[in-house]
C-alpha cells in the first residue's frame, strides 16, 4: 500500500469510494492505549467492510518502522488504510469542514519524539460518502485522562450505533459513549480480552 503525500486528498478519495469511513486517530506505536484501541478497530474491520465501510487509521507519527510496529501489534492488515499525516493537514481540514475537532498537542516533549507539527490526539469519525456524520468523538486532553491517553469510546458500542443508523434507526446521541480507561487496558494485557 502506498502512502499518499497528501492526506486530505487520500481521505477524500477513500470517502468517495466507500459507503462510509470508520476513521480512528491514534497517537503512535508507543502508546498502549492506542494499541488497545486499534486492536478493537481491527476486530471490527470485517463487519465494517461487510457493511460497505472502509477502516481508516490516522496518525501524525511519521516513519515506516512505526507503522510496521502498529500493524504487527494490532492486527491491522495491509488492506486497512492508514493515513500518515505528520503535518496534521487532515486534522486541520476536518476541523475546517466542521466534521471533527481533533486536538493537536504541541510541546517540546512531542517535538523530541518526532512530532514536528504537534501530535494529533485520539479521535473518531464515522462519516458517509455524502458527508453525513454518523458518529464522532475527540479527546480533550487533561490530567484526568492522562493527557489524552485514556477514556476512549468502546468501539463495539460505536459500531452498534452505526449499524442502527445505517438501517435508518435513531441511535441516540452521537457523542455519548461508554469509555475505556486504565483498567480496560490492564484487563486486555492480562487476559487478552477486548
Automatic annotation (TrEMBL):
InterPro entries, A to Z: AhpC/TSA, Thioredoxin-like_sf
GO molecular function: antioxidant activity; oxidoreductase activity
Record-annotated Alkyl hydroperoxide reductase subunit C/ Thiol specific antioxidant domain positions: 20-134
Protein name according to UniProt: Alkyl hydroperoxide reductase subunit C/ Thiol specific antioxidant domain-containing protein
Amino acid at each position: 500500500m502506498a502512502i499518499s503525500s497528501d492526506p486530505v486528498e487520500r481521505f477524500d478519495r477513500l470517502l468517495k469510494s466507500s459507503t462510509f469511513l470508520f476513521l480512528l486517530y491514534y497517537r503512535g506505536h508507543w502508546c498502549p492505549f492506542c494499541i488497545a484501541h486499534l486492536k478493537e478497530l481491527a476486530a471490527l474491520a470485517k463487519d465494517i467492510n461487510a457493511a460497505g465501510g472502509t477502516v481508516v487509521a490516522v496518525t501524525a507519527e511519521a516513519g515506516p518502522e512505526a507503522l510496521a510496529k502498529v500493524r504487527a501489534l494490532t492486527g491491522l492488515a495491509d488492506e486497512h488504510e492508514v493515513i500518515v499525516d505528520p503535518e496534521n493537514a487532515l486534522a486541520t481540514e476536518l476541523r475546517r469542514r466542521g466534521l471533527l475537532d481533533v486536538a493537536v498537542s504541541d510541546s517540546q516533549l512531542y517535538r523530541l519524539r518526532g512530532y514536528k507539527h504537534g501530535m494529533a490526539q485520539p479521535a473518531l469519525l464515522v462519516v458517509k460518502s455524502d458527508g453525513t456524520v454518523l458518529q464522532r468523538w475527540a479527546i480533550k486532553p487533561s490530567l484526568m485522562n492522562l493527557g489524552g491517553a485514556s477514556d476512549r469510546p468502546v468501539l463495539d458500542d460505536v459500531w452498534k450505533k452505526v449499524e442502527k443508523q445505517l438501517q435508518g434507526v435513531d441511535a441516540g446521541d452521537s457523542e455519548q459513549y461508554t469509555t475505556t480507561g486504565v483498567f480496560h487496558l490492564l484487563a486486555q494485557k492480562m487476559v487478552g480480552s477486548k
